[in-house]
From TrEMBL:
This is Protein trichome birefringence-like 38. Pfam families: PC-Esterase, PMR5N. GO terms for molecular function: xylan O-acetyltransferase activity. It is a single-pass type II membrane protein. Keywords: Golgi apparatus, Membrane, Signal-anchor, Transmembrane, Transmembrane helix. Belongs to the PC-esterase family. TBL subfamily. The keyword Membrane applies. GO terms for cellular component: Golgi membrane. PANTHER family: OS01G0217000 PROTEIN, PROTEIN TRICHOME BIREFRINGENCE-LIKE 9-RELATED. InterPro entries: TBL (IPR029962), TBL_C (IPR026057), TBL_N (IPR025846). It comes from Cocos nucifera. It comes from the Eukaryota. Residues 138-402 form the Trichome birefringence-like C-terminal domain.
Amino acid sequence: MKATADRRLHEQLVDGSLLLIPIPFPQKSHPSFAPSLGLSFLISLSLSMGSKAHSRFGPLLLRYVSLALAASSWGVTAGRLSPPACDLFRGTWAYDESYPLYDSASCPFIRREFDCLRYGRPDEMYLKYRWIPNGCDLPRFDGRDLLERWRGKKIMFVGDSLSLNQFNSFLCLLHAAVPGGRTSSNRTEVLTAVRFEDYNVTVMYYVTHYLVDVVREKIGRVLKLDSIQGGQVWLGADVLIFNTWHWWPTRGPAQAWDFIQDGKKILKDMDRTVAFSKALTTWARWADSSINPATTKVFYQGVSPSHYHGQDWGGSYRESCSGQTQPLNASTYPGGPAPQEAIVENVLGTISKPVYLLDITFLSQLRKDAHPSKYNGVHFQNDCSHWCLAGLPDTWNQLMYAAVIR
């Protein structure tokens, strides 16, 4: 039965998805927390559960606690076991003439993969949409405020090119807030760093496709599902934003490994969804044992969808993101949730430390219009996995900002 379910899940995989998550920030007490006995009970219950019960109920508690914390920042009482009035991750996209949040031509940090206007995209409507959550407003990103809050801090995005997408967006948002500010940068094979000198804030991107290690051995490149040596570098940051998934389904010449090591077993291949789940579990154990929430804040980027097949949003199978100019207006996504969402929630539910999930999947599923398609500087014929900048990743960073200031 389990094998059938795993196989079905594997068959539903969509090439090019992505992921993201965080840990709540220590804050001063908020009046709305005073009556929140139900929330306090849930947090205590989540932390005191046995591992078996935690794995079963953890994701549900994680989702409720994340939404309740978000709701409380808008003065909503979160003490009852009913859906909170504010859900940052469910809502609609609305036209807003004041958007985008910055001019891409004025941002020096956008890589050519994401610079759609520069490489000929003729329409600009995709730049004009603002995310409106159910029951509340999403605070506008205030880069100057964030630089002040994180003065002297190091922020690191850890993951694949979708982390790079969000990293570039974040740099542009900060640059737009202090356009005359002094910056310096350096780059190695795996780490790019940009320093906002006037605030002593360093924003970094550490490239890792799988979070777990790929090690060169005599037999070739081995993807080790239970090893994270890179974590020593990550611990130098004050804020961490993780993601992985985009590369797990990749096969052929672009595949970045030759063998998989699962425990003591060396395999030529295995179910990629199962491998992803095992690797994410390794990352969760690392976060639980290595992160001090009092000093280090951890985000995990939710699952970012791709738009290669129109049937996913109610169109024809031959349709893709190419030529799309408007978001989907729907309360649910016709193609359903990304299968990896459940894996992320289940794994995060096993972490004993507080975790806040940036659940970006649904709001991103609606943005079939926001990909580069052919308008990129690296000759991708039709990129429906990454996102134009300015564009959707700016909203991901707005959601992260909302988590910081709540």
